[in-house]
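RECORD TYPE: inverse folding
INPUT: C-alpha cells
STRUCTURE:
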C-alpha cells in the first residue's frame, strides 16, 4: 500500500471516529464504513492492522484529553475552594466576622437581615439591612436603615437599662446577640434598631 492511500484511509477512519458513538461502534463497523466510502477493500490483514493502529491511536489521544480535562477541572475546583476559604477567613479575621464589603457583622437577626458597623465616605455607620445573594456574594438591599455614630448619640446606653454586654455575655462578636436573638426577632424594626444601636455604641467604643 502506498503512502497516499494510507493517508486517505487514515483521514477517512478519523473522520468516521469523530462522528461515531464510541460506546456503540466497533473496529469492524469503522473499517467497513471506510471501505465503502473509499471503495477500497480493507479486509486484507495489512489494512486491518493499519486501521486498528489508527483506531487505537485515536482512542489513546481521546483518553489523554479526557484525563487532562479532568485534571484541569479538579485544579479549578481546588482554586475555587481556596478562594472561598480565603474569603471566609478574611470575613472572620481576628475572631470577628466581616461581610463582602468589609463591614463588621455585629449579629444576624435572620438569614437575610443583619446588623453591621461599616465605614462610608469617612463616616462610621451602624446599619440594620436586608441582604440578597448574587454570584455567591451577599449584597445589601435598599430595605433597612443606617445611622452615623453622631446620629446615634441621642440613643445613649445610659437611657436604656444600663446594660454592659461585655459583663453579662461572652466577649465575642459572634455571641454578643446570641441570647437576645429570639427576643429581637419578635420586636418591631424600630425597637430592634433602638436596642441594637445601644449595644453597637458600646462595641464601637471598646473596639481598638
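DESIGNED SEQUENCE:
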Amino acid at each position: 500500500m502506498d503512502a497516499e492511500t494510507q493517508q486517505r484511509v487514515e483521514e477517512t477512519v478519523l473522520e468516521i471516529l469523530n462522528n461515531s458513538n464510541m460506546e456503540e461502534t466497533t473496529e469492524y463497523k469503522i473499517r467497513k464504513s471506510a471501505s465503502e466510502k473509499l471503495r477500497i477493500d480493507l479486509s486484507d490483514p495489512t489494512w486491518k492492522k493499519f486501521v486498528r493502529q489508527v483506531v487505537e491511536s485515536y482512542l489513546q489521544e481521546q483518553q489523554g484529553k479526557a484525563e487532562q480535562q479532568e485534571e484541569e477541572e479538579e485544579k479549578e475546583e481546588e482554586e475555587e475552594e481556596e478562594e472561598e476559604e480565603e474569603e471566609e477567613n478574611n470575613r472572620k479575621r481576628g475572631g470577628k466576622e466581616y461581610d463582602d464589603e468589609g463591614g463588621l457583622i455585629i449579629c444576624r437577626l435572620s438569614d437575610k437581615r443583619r446588623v453591621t458597623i461599616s465605614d462610608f465616605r469617612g463616616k462610621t455607620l451602624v446599619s440594620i439591612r436586608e441582604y440578597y445573594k448574587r454570584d455567591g456574594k451577599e449584597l445589601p438591599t435598599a430595605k433597612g436603615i443606617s445611622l452615623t455614630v453622631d446620629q446615634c448619640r441621642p440613643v445613649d446606653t445610659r437611657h436604656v437599662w444600663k446594660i454592659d454586654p461585655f459583663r453579662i455575655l461572652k466577649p465575642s462578636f459572634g455571641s454578643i446577640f446570641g441570647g437576645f436573638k429570639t427576643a429581637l426577632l419578635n420586636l418591631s424594626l424600630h425597637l430592634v434598631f433602638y436596642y441594637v444601636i445601644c449595644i453597637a455604641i458600646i462595641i464601637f467604643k471598646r473596639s481598638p
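NOTES: The two ends are 85 Å apart (CA to CA).
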